[in-house]
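Hi there,

I know you've been waiting on this one. I reran it after we fixed the sequence typo, so this is the corrected version. Both the input and the resulting structure follow.
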Amino acid sequence: MYGTVRRSGRRLSGPEELRNNGVVKNVGEAPAAPAEELATGERSTRNRVARSILDHGPSTVAELAKRLGLTQAAVRRHLDALVADDVVAPREQRVYGARTRGRPAKVFALTDCGRDAFDQSYDALAVDALRWIERTAGEEAVAAFARDRIESQAEAYREAVEAAAPEDRAEALAKALSADGYAATARNAPVGQQLCQHHCPVAHVAEQYPQLCEAETEIFSRLLGTHVQRLATIAHGDGVCTTYIPHTTSSASASTAGRNPA
């Protein structure tokens, strides 16, 4: 559905790694090579550094070293990598009251990217909000919300589709969706095309409220000027959201000619 992860450059500790605080046992697998063990240990310690900043707020190198039982040199090495990954950022420590002599100590704080790497409650909040709408205003209100939500995002999709030749509109829509973080592709299929979305940021919400998927399917149909069929969704356990787009016939094309399909 909507949203994206947009980061470039070297990613030494991605969101999944930061969220994974458990222990994984590799039963029956060959032991990791020394280089792999070293890399895994580095990532684990780096995650501990980031987690300590999350739990305790902006921290100095000395504070982190003391809390984690590391040398300051090791902490600085991990902080350099986290800064390069845009997980933390250095800043001057705020001083309250009389300032002492010398430069204020430098502290390291999580960036927005760094905070997003840890578990958030956005899905639960969205489900709670939709449940309240459903309870107080009914299921149709949820559907109306879903339609309004996709309509507010559809203008960019509409511009992309209308600027493309009819045979290229599925590809144009896929590119517009990818720009919004959907990782979408279009490919030929028997008697039509398939639009595939490999990422769904609201999949957990859509599991309980399929109106989000239904509204999206409706807008695809209107944008493309033809009936489309949703074959699979990530929200229902499929690996990808797949929408079938049949080839339009000459009569169908004529019926939509000269008017905005949306």
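Quick highlight: The chain has eleven helices and six strands.

Best,
R. S.
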